[in-house]
Amino acid sequence: MGKTKPLVAVVDDDGSVSRAIKRLLRSIGIGSDTFASGDEFLDMLLSMPSYRPDCVILDVQMPGLNGLEVQRRLAGRGLPIIFITAHDDIAVREQALAAGAVAYLRKPFNDELFVKTVRAALDSNPQT
User: Fold this and answer.
1) What is the full DSSP assignment across 45-83?
2) Fold of domain 13-118
3) How does pLDDT run across 91-116, given as a tens digit for each residue?
């Protein structure tokens, strides 16, 4: 049984980026929770086993755990992951996609492409 409103977790240390993504998602009827670090997001998952977003948007470069490390720790949970980054490094992109990320977008990204990417990720998740 799917939820009525999908939930996306946005993990980015840049508050303005998180707020912009949250607004964009809300405008298309998708709920979101924002986290300022990978540690904060993983702590939420561990402390609340019932917390299960339908998709995770991860910044690559963050203080503490970077996006690739968070992705590694989420392995096996079946969560679609979309990476966003201001620093497009081809080796990092290949590593993220090889580990199962559904997309890797460079900031600033086109809103239409972003929305299409999120919808595709949500459609690929049998939980939604």
Assistant:
1) HHH-TT---SEEEEESS-SSS-HHHHHHHHTTS---EEE
2) Rossmann fold (3.40.50)
3) 999 999 999 999 999 998 899 999 99
